[in-house]
Amino acid sequence: MSAAMNRALPLLAAPVAFFAAFFAVPMIVVVSSSLMAGGVPSLGNYARVLFDQYHWDVLAATFRIAGLTTVACALLGYPLAYYLVRVVKSRALRRTCVILLVLPLFTSNIVRSFGWMVLLGRNGLVNDALVGVGILDRPMRFLGTELGIVIGLVYILLPFIVLAVGNALAAVDPALEDASSDLGATPFDTFRTVTFPLCLPGLMSGIVMVFTLAVSAYVTPALLSGGKITVFPMLIFQQYSTVFDVNYGGALSITLLVMTLVLVGLAGWIGNAGASATGRKAQ
Amino acid sequence: MTHTRAATRTVSRFAALTAVLAAGVSLYALPAAAQGEIRVAWYGGNWGEAFRTCVAEPFTKATGVRVVPEIGTSTVTFAKLQQQKDAPTLDVAYMDGGISEMAQAAGVLEAIDPTGVPNLAKALPEAIYKADKSIFAVGSGYYSLGLTYNTKEIKTPPTSWNDLWKPEFADTVTIPSPANSSGVPFVMFLNRMWGNPPGDLSKTFEKLKTLKTALYFDSSGAASNAYQSGEAIIGAHFNVGAWDLADKGLPIGFAVPKEGVWATDARLHLVKNAPHKADAQRFIDTALTPEASACLAEKLYLGPAVQGVSVSPDVERKLPWGVGGSVKNLQLFNWADINRDRAAITDAWNRELARQ
């Protein structure tokens, strides 16, 4: 045991040092600066954030946008992953699909959000098409609305959920599904009681990833909101980059972090409770 | 047989590649080894390109000293200067007005001495920034935030900032948000323009609330994008960005309204304890020549901050002060006032305007 430990320790040193330097230290800097006001230790910054309805409104908008993004990603991503893993038989085609899915990740968020600004604009392709087909009488506003931000975020975050669900689906043993249908279950029942619960952990990890990335997204909301909607990361960015109040900015950052952790924890707890409930029912 | 030939070919190709690489490396390394170098922080994109062509290249040609650029926005450069306060690697830093004053207050700048930089004598008096009687920055060119409009949609050029409130422009206007360096000063500019008391911006925000905008832009790029796509057909934009669009053939015009324009400048700073102080001073001296200023005016339409610069008539009309103007026509605010009110204005903006 201790010999194995001794061998493992030097191997661990590199990741631990990396983690300390690029995660722990900056985090400590942010936390400690958030606890200072006017050069003295104080909780004043947190009071300023928490006792102000404005911040709660912005927080609500941030979580609403992130929540809608996550739901849309799950609804679009799950069938897409299912299609890629179960329906596409040709390996070459599947590989092509995965490459197409991942390819946008190689382009910067800024460029992609600018692309959406052009597409969703008053004279953009989306409005032109909707008006041309006759769905709309006149161009609809996307920029500066929560819908516009959600569209941009879903596009950027969809690959994360597809890859997470796809991996989970690929790991499901087909023998279990065969057994289920041998025992007389319809394909829908098999999916509902066997396949879906088995890839739930993959779906959950995809959901958590998408939600946390959507909550912390800055570039996409900043560009697609047209400055008319404020999400929490925009407030943080303002304090750090233009107002230069790192103390207040730090308190905003930690508030967002804690609130997000609470929500993610809550979702995980509900997910677990739900999973064990269905597990019991299945037994 | 074919196999061997292919292998030989690969080897020779590899050798050729190595030779090219080696030649490249030695070309790159030689002047540095022989003459030394200085590190200069400047901005990205066409700004950085212009500084390279107009200042760095003539400087290297005259002195043999290589210029290593460190690309970043003013804010990033300021952050770097603070981090390397004890052992700086930068020699010269370009930073915008506003950040410049913050850098001075943070004690990361060295006084620019007229004996080391003789061309300071040629600089406009407005372009020399002093604190405690020593020069902490010198202007390298002005740019302004003027009225920008789509010439296809708007036939008669707008003449007043109040034109933005005309009903025919509803939902097609753009102005800067406080995330942009011009956002907070623009609010103060409007406040002064409407004759509201300097300490009370409530009336100005009331008026801004009635402005029907398409978007508030947080970066110059976002503004350019909005004018280019037709999302915005009138509003504010920098003369640099607006004329850049016009030069690309887009139907964009830039006007200096009767109330004037808010303007600021890109400034040169000598870094405190710069490792190559003498060369850094010479670099600043080169930047203050009429030739460098004329070159920056041609490339970016930056209004020259030194005397005796002549440019072509086409460039002249695109300068920040417009046709027949000069630095006297620019409304240059005191950045100390802007920085003092920055947090309050940003906060008021968030609450009043940046929520539906």
Can you tell me the CATH superfamily of chain A? MetI-like
The backbone outline of chain A, from C-alpha atoms, is: globular
Helix content of chain A: over 70%
SSE string of chain A = HEEHHHHHHHHHHHH
Strand content of chain A: under 5%
How many domains of chain A? The number is 1
CATH fold naming of chain A: MetI-like fold
What level of helicity do the residues of chain B show?
40-55%
Number of domain units of chain B: 2
Pfam families (chain A): BPD_transp_1
Domain ABC transmembrane type-1 (chain A): 59-267
Subcellular location (chain A): Cell membrane
GO biological process, one term (chain A): transmembrane transport
Summarize the structure.
With 283 residues, chain A is mostly helical.
Structure description:
The complex is a heterodimer of chains A (283) and B (356). With 283 residues, chain A is mainly alpha-helical. Chain A has a single domain, classed as MetI-like fold. Chain A contains 13 helices and 2 strands; from the N terminus they run αββαααααααααααα. Chain A has a two-stranded antiparallel ribbon. In chain A, helix 3 packs across helix 7. Chain A is globular. The relative contact order of chain A is 0.12. The mean pLDDT of chain A is 90. Chain B is α/β, with parallel strands linked by helices and 356 residues long. Chain B has 2 domains: 29-142 and 265-322, Periplasmic binding protein-like II (D-Maltodextrin-Binding Protein, domain 2, 3-Layer(aba) Sandwich); 143-263 and 334-352, Periplasmic binding protein-like II (D-Maltodextrin-Binding Protein, domain 2), CATH 3.40.190. In chain B, 43% of the residues lie in helices and 20% in strands. Chain B has 12 helices and 12 strands. Chain B has helices spanning 2-35, 45-63, 74-83, 99-105, 183-193, 202-209, 220-229, 239-247, 277-287, 290-300, 313-316, 335-352, and strands at residues 37-42, 66-71, 92-96, 109-110, 128-131, 134-150, 173-176, 213-217, 234-238, 252-255, 261-271, 330-331. In chain B, strand 1, helix 2 and strand 2 (66-71) form a beta-alpha-beta unit. In chain B, helix 2 crosses helix 9 (277-287), helix 2 packs antiparallel against helix 10 (290-300) and helix 3 packs parallel to helix 4. Chain B starts with a helix and ends with a helix. Mean pLDDT of chain B is 89; it is low at 1-34. The interface between A and B is medium-sized, with 30 and 31 residues. Chain B: Residues 1-34 form the signal peptide. Chain B: One of its GO terms (cellular component) is outer membrane-bounded periplasmic space. Chain B: This is Putative spermidine/putrescine transport system substrate-binding protein. Chain B: It comes from Azospirillum brasilense. Chain B: It holds the Pfam family SBP_bac_8. Chain A: It is a multi-pass membrane protein.
